[in-house]
Amino acid sequence: MKNFNFYSPTEFVFGKERENECGQYVRKHGGSKILLHFGSNSAKKSGLLDRVKQSLEKEGIAYVELGGVQPNPHDSLVYKGIEICRKEKIDFILAVGGGSVIDSAKAIAMGVPYDGNFWDFYSGKKPATALPIGTVLTIAAAGSEGSGDSVITKEDGMLKRGASGDCIRPKFSILNPQLTCTLPAYQTACGATDIMAHTFERYFTNTQEVEITDRLCEAILLTMIKETPRVIQDPNNYEARANIMWAGMVCHNNITGVGREQDWNSHGIEHELSALYDCAHGAGLAVIMPAWMEYVMQHDVMRFAQVATRVWGCQMNFQHPEVTAKEGIIAFRRFLSSIGMPINFKELGAKGEDIPLLVKSFGIGEGETGGFVHLKKKDIENIYTIVLNASL
């Protein structure tokens, strides 16, 4: 296990109706005038936004509203939010929504105290400071409610890039599983896929002897395999929703990734799909991750065989572990299909003729990526080609 620092200061407020307490937690963490950031009209129609406002007003906390965050959030709204915060002297941002809203809030939070363009942080610069943020989570997926990460799409060129820093970890996050019960089955499945992908990105590592984090990852995967079909069959199953919501946080605040190398190539390859086609991030991951697994499996067959036996229940073939490894990948793809996820370009709505553009947008030129297996431009193209023709 490698040396590491682990810092996760977020206060998690979990359970039924806890959004009615958000004003107390804004006050506790120093907010007096906030930017209330949210997405579509669903937060208004459901009454959630009204409950949040009532809680803020009860604590005497002033707020300015900024809605309109879309999936795969764009930089144009971030610039607008930065301008509002500076003009209104905002000292705290409260994100009410899913990962897209929270990521947008983080981008605004970094941009307000920064003299340059906030996009610098999505081009490799590390943020030194940011406005404090809190969240009221409405979908279990991205894990942004507990992480120091954010992903934004730049409209000029449709570039989807990430930023990270401990200063953008939320001060508090309110997690009420009831708020996810009205999600369509497709969105629920997309979120579950994202949670599993966050786990796999850490699981596939070149670091040896990391049994504790291996087992934590496997526990999250087993939980998702059990609970996702339950909530798709019964959207109001609170216990299943609760387990999924907590899994989404645990898998991405990095407690499962400390002390080990991580990959993240599947996320990078998928970002080009959701930037170009505006597809759901989880749906893009559903087609990319099994294809990536097929392509890199020979790098460490025993690790793929390990997850096949421990998570998917495959029988270990000691003479031919690659057989077991392949069975695990097949089981993963079948599971994704069973919960309504696409498995190839056609089902996703992507086009084979766009593969050269996707590869070019990936932005590595003649270089290579890091991770579990280093990938060059031709490797990225080959992975997209596997997705093009994938089947059960």
Major sheet characteristics: 6 strands, parallel
Give helix % range.
Answer: 40-55%
Order of helices and strands: EHEHHEHEHEEEEHHHHHHHHHH
Q: CATH first level of the largest domain: which class?
A: Mainly Alpha
- How many domains comprise the coordinates? 2
Which CATH architecture of the largest domain? Up-down Bundle
Q: Would you identify the CATH H-level superfamily of the largest domain?
A: Dehydroquinate synthase-like - alpha domain
What would you say this structure looks like, in words?
By secondary structure, the protein is α/β, with parallel strands linked by helices. The chain is built from 15 helices and eight strands. The protein has two domains: about 170 residues, Rossmann fold, CATH 3.40.50; about 210 residues, Dehydroquinate synthase-like - alpha domain (Dehydroquinate synthase-like, alpha domain). The strands form two sheets. It has a six-stranded parallel beta sheet with strand order 1-8-5-4-2-3, sandwiched between helices. Strands 6-7 form a two-stranded antiparallel ribbon. Helix 9 crosses helix 10 and helix 9 packs across helix 14. The longest helix has 23 residues. It starts with 10 loop residues before the first strand and ends with a helix.
